[in-house]
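Researcher: Quick one. two chains, 326 residues in total.
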Amino acid sequence: MSPPVFQDDLSIPDEERLLRRVHIQQIVRDDDTGLARVSSGVFRDKELSINLESALSDLGGSAESCLQASSAHKLISITAQNARQFNQSVCRDPVPDDLSHGLVYGSKSGSVRDGLRAAADWVIPANAPRYEEIEAERRLLGI
Amino acid sequence: MAAIALPQFQPTTALTGDQFESRWEHPATSSAALSKPKVRRYKFSFGKSAFKVVVTEHVVPAGFTENSLPTWVEPTIAAFMTVRSLPENWDLYGGKTVGSDVVVESLSILGQIMDAASPAPSVVPLGDGGLQLEWHRNQQDLEIVFPSDDVPQFYYRDRRAGIEQDGLASDFSNLARLLRGIA
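Model:
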């Protein structure tokens, strides 16, 4: 059986924010700035799970609720336009316990992964933290 | 005496569970070929896991002390053990535990591209049970991806020059050259 192919859902506007959780071990140091940066490995899956912010909001959820109260995760976002610029499809994919779930679908070369990473904005926290803060959090979490 | 050029790991062998033995061999010079190699053993503990690194030196390089080991080795091994310790669903997207086979494979490649002064990589888990090594320095990015079900690949970008390279991580001399440019 051939794998599923997800079509771009044009009812999702370009400005839609697509939220993605990031584990604290997926955050690395940019030695040039001393700031934390998200690894491009976050954007590797062909079927990349995200939450559509508008759908989440319609369901009464929030960006904070995306984190499921996990202290080992942060939250970032890209826009649907960012994804489409890299030839990715954006679609809704609600699942029983996550009705705002969606996918950024498509093959992701190193260049695409790095482009999506560069386009991503921090949501929680609102700005890129110093990498030392991430290290301190890891120590607190024992990881 | 020449500085260490490209040290070579012998194949890294998983002992039991989270124990690994890495062999690190400084390259022999022509004058050293007849002398008896010097073997030193280092042990690292991390949680319930243990690492052994065996260094075989045909020539003791200038500037090396009895207990010296390339500075990247210990933090890198600690980082490997950290990502190995992550539970199933660590990313809240069904992420798999990082496999020991990809750790062994990545150590093997590191041993062929790192030199004594190379900076330690960031070690990042992947959702499929693989891992990624990354360096972001001097306006350059180098990433080596070890997927759980595919051959290693790399991606390099020089942000100033706008130059990109990607492909299979099989040309170790190219990877070593890129790494020296970043360090």
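Chain B touches chain A at residues 82-83, 85-86, 90-93, 95, 119, 122, 124-128, 132, 134-139, 141, 143, 145, 153-155, 157, 164, 166 (CB under 8 Å).
Researcher: Thanks, that's what I needed.
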